[in-house]
Specification:
The chain is α/β, with parallel strands linked by helices. The chain has 2 domains: about 190 residues, no CATH class; about 190 residues, Glycosidases (TIM Barrel), CATH 3.20.20. Helices cover about 45% and strands about 10% of the residues. It contains 18 helices and 13 strands. Helix 5 packs across helix 7, helix 6 crosses helix 7 and helix 15 packs parallel to helix 18.
Length: about 475
């Protein structure tokens, strides 16, 4: 006999994962930004989803790898909406002048890849235009807006001054972040402090203005991302991001304290792992990000797990995170994580292949509380992997002649049927897109949330999608899943 209570809210949920930089919108200057995150929140709400997971938003450099930021704390200016109708200090005439010049210089042969260097240069130019107005109209006059800026600087004083100095020195080196190759005058932290002090003695106002610019950019970023959080809260969408244990070796924190890190190489990428007071370090990072994000996912848990047995403080910290998740692709690491930190919410990032080469059946994820399909889009797997198509046909009875919206819905239904508490889908799969070759962090998708919602088939797709969520007890207002009774 099946018994159900229509008044009990379901504990199951579903969410959307996005790389913000890859999601297009009209007027975004070639890179996804905080404004498109507002649109993604609207999309998630319309679809009946309850969370939005974004890749790390810390500032990166030329490669745009979100797992290798140049600071644990600084937010990436490339993700900012720098239009005059959003950025109060930017005049429309300055915006038109900078963007016209950038369009004239732009070689439009980049295809579907993110033109990272070009976009960042344009946005930094626009932020300088905005800052110059802010400096004259507010900073020098001590306006209410300037006081808000100074309150931000005071609140973030633990990391902001060193970051601003680091960014200024990068500009002295034409954007080169590899500080070991910098001039001997400031190639080490203590030398850099003396170098900056010497500049201050000769040109105090010029130095103050230069450093204030980098702080201004971070203030704008903090403001825009807090606005994103407020919009998400209005629509009951939880914001989630990754809390990486490492940064790029060429970062402000490593520059200040190189002996406090160890270097690791994984998949050809150098990562600096903090080895100082880890608990204090993570507490400060959480304090920086928690006004924006409600929940945190811990990727590359194999790196973190080495610290767990040695540092009870880390275990205490992770257990205090709001609904923490661990992201791994190997079940063995998941088992180790469960044994070490049983309160963690585990994500097995790929539902295939199982050890026998088949798709993992739902019972294999019976204890999982967080599951997703993985990095490659379903459409790409379907198009390029005959073995994958055979598994879909034989195990899931999904055998389309071509990949369309019905295929997307059929595959997502299978994922939502997994018993995990939370299931997450990628934007690529929701939009029925195929990720292209090359690094995912240089992707530029062909369809944004507005375009999705303006598609002639949108209403039908949305209705069917919400129906699947309701049938799998993942819609926001779904009742609790019925349970068998004696």
């Amino acid at each position: 006999m099946i018994a159900s209570s229509p008044t009990t809210k379901s504990t199951r949920s579903a969410g959307l994962e996005v790389p913000v930089f890859a999601i297009p919108r009209d007027g975004d200057l070639g890179c996804g930004d905080t404004q498109v995150v507002h649109e993604l929140i609207d999309l998630a709400h319309a679809m009946g989803l309850q969370s939005l997971t974004v890749l790390p938003i810390q500032e990166t450099v030329k490669g745009n790898d979100p797992a290798s930021p140049i600071s644990f704390y600084a937010l990436d200016p490339i993700l900012l909406d720098v239009s005059p109708w959003t950025l109060d200090d930017l005049q429309s005439t300055a915006y038109d002048r900078v963007t016209r010049s950038a369009d004239a210089e732009y070689d439009k042969t980049n295809g579907d890849a993110l033109a990272y260097n070009r976009v960042k240069k344009v946005k930094i130019d626009l932020l300088w235009q905005a800052f110059e107005h802010f400096w004259d109209a507010h900073y020098l006059k001590g306006s209410i807006r300037a006081r808000d800026y100074h309150r931000f600087c005071h609140r973030e004083q633990r990391w902001l001054p060193d970051y601003c100095m680091y960014r200024m020195l990068m500009d002295f080196e034409q954007g080169r972040e590899s500080w070991e190759d910098w001039s001997e005058d400031y190639g080490r932290y203590e030398d850099a402090r003396q170098f900056v002090a010497a500049i201050s003695a000769k040109k105090p106002e010029a130095l103050e203005r230069q450093l204030a610019f980098y702080a201004y950019v971070q203030w704008v970023a903090d403001t825009q991302w807090r606005d994103v959080r407020a919009h998400a809260e209005r629509l009951n969408i939880r914001l989630i991001t990754d809390l990486h244990c490492g940064v790029s070796p060429h970062c402000a924190e490593f520059f200040r304290e190189p002996d406090g890190f160890r270097l690791e190489i994984s998949e050809g990428r150098k990562t600096a792992i903090y080895e100082g007071n880890l608990l204090d370090h993570l507490e400060h990072r959480l304090r920086r990000l928690s006004p924006i994000f409600e929940e945190f996912r811990i990727p590359d848990f194999r790196q973190t797990i080495r610290q767990v047995d040695q540092d009870d403080g880390l275990k205490t910290f992770i257990n205090r995170l709001p609904n923490p998740h661990v992201s791994e692709t190997t079940a063995s690491t998941i088992r180790i994580a469960w044994e070490s930190l049983p309160s963690l919410s585990m994500e097995l990032s790929q539902l295939w292949p199982a050890p026998n080469g088949k798709l993992n059946p739902p019972e294999a994820n019976a204890q999982m509380s967080f599951s997703s399909f993985g990095a490659n889009s379903l459409r790409r797997l379907w198009a390029n992997d005959e073995t994958f198509r055979q598994r879909l046909k034989n195990q899931w009875e999904v055998n389309p002649k071509s990949y369309d919206l019905k295929t997307t819905l059929a595959l997502l239904r299978k994922l939502f049927q997994y018993p995990a508490k939370h299931v997450q889908i990628s934007y690529l799969d929701l939009a029925g897109l195929e990720n292209g070759p090359g690094p995912n962090w240089l992707a530029r998708y062909k369809k944004g949330p507005r375009a999705m919602m303006e598609d002639p088939d949108w209403d039908t797709f949305r209705e069917e999608f919400r129906k699947i969520l309701q049938q799998t007890y993942r819609l926001g207002d779904s009742p609790e899943k019925p349970v068998e009774s004696e």
